[in-house]
Amino acid sequence: MTVQPSPSRPGRPVLLGQNQYGKAENRVVRITRDGDTHHIKDLNVSVALSGDMDDVHHCGSNANVLPTDTTKNTVYAFAKEHGIASAEQFGIHLARHFVTSQEPIHRARIRVEEYSWERIEHHGRGAHSFVRANQETRLAQITYDGTSWEVVSGLKDLVVMNSTDSEFHGFVKDKYTTLPEAHDRILATQVSARWRFNWTDDAQQAPDWETSYAETRRHMLEAFAETYSLSLQQTLYEMGARIVEHRDEIDEVRFSLPNKHHFLVDLEPFGLKNDNEVYFAADRPYGLIEATVLREGRPQLIPADLTNL
Amino acid sequence: MTVQPSPSRPGRPVLLGQNQYGKAENRVVRITRDGDTHHIKDLNVSVALSGDMDDVHHCGSNANVLPTDTTKNTVYAFAKEHGIASAEQFGIHLARHFVTSQEPIHRARIRVEEYSWERIEHHGRGAHSFVRANQETRLAQITYDGTSWEVVSGLKDLVVMNSTDSEFHGFVKDKYTTLPEAHDRILATQVSARWRFNWTDDAQQAPDWETSYAETRRHMLEAFAETYSLSLQQTLYEMGARIVEHRDEIDEVRFSLPNKHHFLVDLEPFGLKNDNEVYFAADRPYGLIEATVLREGRPQLIPADLTNL
Amino acid sequence: MTVQPSPSRPGRPVLLGQNQYGKAENRVVRITRDGDTHHIKDLNVSVALSGDMDDVHHCGSNANVLPTDTTKNTVYAFAKEHGIASAEQFGIHLARHFVTSQEPIHRARIRVEEYSWERIEHHGRGAHSFVRANQETRLAQITYDGTSWEVVSGLKDLVVMNSTDSEFHGFVKDKYTTLPEAHDRILATQVSARWRFNWTDDAQQAPDWETSYAETRRHMLEAFAETYSLSLQQTLYEMGARIVEHRDEIDEVRFSLPNKHHFLVDLEPFGLKNDNEVYFAADRPYGLIEATVLREGRPQLIPADLTNL
Amino acid sequence: MTVQPSPSRPGRPVLLGQNQYGKAENRVVRITRDGDTHHIKDLNVSVALSGDMDDVHHCGSNANVLPTDTTKNTVYAFAKEHGIASAEQFGIHLARHFVTSQEPIHRARIRVEEYSWERIEHHGRGAHSFVRANQETRLAQITYDGTSWEVVSGLKDLVVMNSTDSEFHGFVKDKYTTLPEAHDRILATQVSARWRFNWTDDAQQAPDWETSYAETRRHMLEAFAETYSLSLQQTLYEMGARIVEHRDEIDEVRFSLPNKHHFLVDLEPFGLKNDNEVYFAADRPYGLIEATVLREGRPQLIPADLTNL
């Protein structure tokens, strides 16, 4: 937020600061037909534009305002004109268009949610039947200021669990501490992650966005599964480090990991021994562990708060 | 609802009708350890009990009331004592217990949501790492009145799409009709389904609940994919008929199928032709198609409204 | 559900049972302008039609099918033609129209959610500024079969709390009971209620739907507040009885009342005494208390399960 | 985010960046008894702590980690020890405690959601019955680094509508623009707002947090109602300016305002004229207007993105 606040109108000690506008949550489904075999991309695209927007705030003049409705139309038109090779590439087309075609627009930020579909196996003809798959939603954010690009990809709602190989002890005790130490517990979380690419310039070779996403997701899952955990922080760090070490195109990863507590149920009142078999899956409250892991020498740019809590 | 309303208290022209109570949404996770290989069942269990409950309504006497907290404890204790072979079998254990152990309880209904997990493939030791899979939630409802059983299984939030092989025309036109006929459209829905088993008696051989669920889900998906559709009603009927024809243990299926509209975007204002490639995925309103399909000669017992809209 | 299943197609042991279709969740806002003073009705209207619908299920013939899109158009056209005096009256117009204008339609059911708005007090001219008010949503369901009417109104998400004057003791103890008795507890619930009117015939004087709703809501709140409670069942019964006793137009009330547990926090480990001051508001699990209260001699017609859990 | 990334472990080109942890969503209800009259505060409190946390990320050592469970206990203990005069004051107690009592903790951030309750009017004794009121949720965020305070308050889900006195025209038209100009439209939004206080030092007189919230909410509503709007940006600016001009304790306001579109329904196909009476309330997509309004000479510190879309 290096935007300079705009001069106030005469007589008011009030300035306009950072602002952006656009159409949010444009739901676009793009079908590509290869004979009887269809391919599908299912996106939720949000546009946010910034630029010379003082007048519309100060007096309601829309002379510099491309309507949000137009930004919606552009999303659908571009789905036809450019296709959707990936969420990232689609966002790059859109962001470039808004900044280069509209003089008052100095920055465009495109956010995309992508929903995944698998083919339904069946005995009929053709391949154009699909079932929604996975719990998680893929994310992409593309920002362009006319000069350089920032691409941050990610996912949310990837729910994972280790049913053992997790401990928690040796922690600080103060007068409000009642938690017993745990030497074998369930570790479960709902991963929200964002990772920033070091591709910033059209002159660079762009990453293969589809491969990068699949591999990054795989590294996160493997790191989660393969880490014997003494704290969720340690697991988080390993997930991030694994990505930085294996994916040269990524410089920074931010995680927000709720500790989805599974409490061992006390069955002793019923004469039963609970040998780490029966758990109560709690909703609230939950531990919330958030951190950035980044490549040595690279800046920290992803904002800290991925959730509002 | 053949329950007879209870006599009113003196002087009040008011009767008590059908009533039930219990603890809802008990979240239980059951881990079964086979050495380094763990198995997981993840359920949300709701208990509803009915019986001699006039006094507690009329004057607050809890003499016949087993606390809802106790029904929660029982869920966790039974997860240890009986394990969770399937949602249905677990519900049968619980329902039988409440009806046979508590004289004032005449009927027990257990509802279960089950969440599915897949193993994470990784290079570490053991097999105790999981990722939540699928969009849909498996459902089971077990009702016992001390004599006979009713088991209704199902699922919700199974989202499916055919990107072609769907038409809609030849419909009634009245003065409020503006819809054009469609000869190639996307057909998409979010399946909510319940199916009733003809197993009602302990003397009968119970179905293999796990196999039955997997096969019923498969038949639904195949019928959806293999049906060239002239209306969502036709597709619904084929999905139900396929189940009745292939699964002898099931007598009745109820569907609630929102028609998740995907509207072809008009790109002509931008000089583009939309050859069934770019769609707007709408939220509301949506068509809602609901029907029961049942085996000849068998009663219709599943209630009509699976949703509240 | 007294619908007779339809004959199967040759060779299939499969029947079509109860079915209905229509457009769900039509969001209509109706502004009535009285000079500078505007009035607002904000509804979510769902249409469900039943009748001669065998062919569309069996072979996809839409010859009897009024499109769901047409039912949507009708909602908006009727908002203009008839206005929206109340959710109930609006539903009556719609249901009558579908059954009387379309020969294949034998039954129409209209469900309405209504959102409440209050005026914003301000110093400007006119009275056309509003703020959404209340947590609860008003509900109405109107069913017409060409002969008689069933009107069920209600509400959901009305959250109430008594911070004292609630006890729970004298309950059954079995081997799974650990709950201590409570002699002063918080009683809180999120009321879901439906009430059925005894107006069934056009020849009868219809109730004043707006007054009836306001008074019924008031009686529920007063009964909740004024009842010293020994169990949530007792409070529920008083809420229903109060309505039946005071509102002659209503014959039956159904409640679904989650017991929103507020657990007294144990502060003794920190050397503090918790004198019914500090509570943990729990999410899940929760007690769920459901019952019908009805006028002597009147039938019980509202279905038992208002929620799916 | 001026946090310096931590040195990597030997041999890994990976650094730890900004990180924080704590217990989120502690639901606390505090009853204050004044004889038969009770007062209620209903909060959802989230704790996030930062400091010397390298070891727990790098190797799982919890030697500097106060458990999230302890932070939860502290919330409940402080509700007893300090009471809850306001969300802001309660957060100040908590943040000060964590930073001053734990050497490794350098910064504490407390986030609070507050739910509002109104008294139920009734004829019984006492005043301890409540009903949840309003759609919006009050928010507070308190951050302390051992030296200075940052308090940001706000609200979300305040839904407002002007049914006239809104226009939108004179905007940019490009090749993707199809929107007609509007000279009388509904303007509706769901306000999400955050405002930052200029109280930063214990030596300053703290604002009256309760009065400040009530007045700020009132100014926002009045500004929304009293502004003849040529764009939602103009309305947003007036809402912010009104606060800055009237509330000396506030230096900066950030808004995220979805333009909740209400589309005039075309009734001409049915031979009806829609004279700004019947609207379709759309869900998605929606315009999203976001901006900061601030006092001249004061810094812009509230992050730009209040939502994730």
What does this molecule look like?
The structure is a homotetramer of 309-residue chains. Chain A is α+β, with helices and mostly antiparallel strands. Chain A is globular, with a radius of gyration of 24 Å. The first copy, chain A, contains 5 helices and 13 strands. In chain A, 22% of the residues lie in helices and 37% in strands. The two termini of chain A are 22 Å apart. In chain A, α2 packs across α3 (87-101) and α4 (209-226) runs antiparallel to α5. Chain A folds into 2 domains: 19-147, Urate Oxidase (Roll), CATH 3.10.270; 154-309, Urate Oxidase, CATH 3.10.270. Chains in contact: A-B, A-C, A-D, B-C, B-D, C-D. At the A-D interface, β1, β3, α1, α2 and α5 of A face β1, β3, α1, α2 and α5 of D.
In short:
The structure is a homotetramer of 309-residue chains. With 309 residues, chain A is of the alpha+beta class.
Poorly predicted parts of chain A: none
Subunit organisation of the chains: homotetramer
Order of helices and strands of chain A: EEEHHHEEEEEEHHEEEE
Gyration radius of chain A, rounded? 24 Å
Give the largest chain-chain interface (CB within 8 Å): A-D, 94 and 94 residues
**Architecture per CATH nomenclature, i.e. the level-2 architecture of the largest domain in chain A:** Roll
Q: What proportion of the residues of chain A is helical, as a percent range?
A: 10-25%
Q: What is the CATH topology descriptor of the largest domain in chain A?
A: Urate Oxidase
The number of helices of chain A is 5
Give the class-level CATH name of the largest domain in chain A.
Answer: Alpha Beta
Family (chains A, B, C, D): Belongs to the uricase family.
GO molecular function, one term (chains A, B, C, D): urate oxidase activity
Catalytic activity (chains A, B, C, D): urate + O2 + H2O = 5-hydroxyisourate + H2O2
EC number (chains A, B, C, D): 1.7.3.3
